[in-house]
Amino acid sequence: MTPEELEAFRGWCRTFEVPPHSLIMKALEHIDQQAASLDEAEALTKRNAELMNGYLARITELETRCIYNPESGKIFVPDGHPELERLRKQIATLQEIAVEERAKRIYKGRFRSLNFELPADRKNHIGEARRQLATEHPEAFR
Where is pLDDT greater, at 116 or 24? Predict the structure, then answer.
């Protein structure tokens, strides 16, 4: 149902004075709650992508100042920045959070379930979430 159709239906309910405790009104209230939940999840996904982009920029900056020693095969950060690995861990964590949130949205969208937890067999939802996020944010999900 499109937002326009939903608004037209709400107008119909007002016109015919559908009682607020009726099943129809409860269903409309549930739709509103689900929409708000999806908006929050989308905002969180967008914020995580912004954070990851910032971390990736910082890693790129640090990597440009690195020195590669071919004898030992090691990379050194001249300033002694121990934060390179810390930033990578933060990015991995944010990516997992973004994937988990997207997978929940996919699950809720397909099954219209009130349950916010993903099912035990969630590989399909996680895989689909990773594909969608990699398409939308290739710089953050390489």
Answer: 24
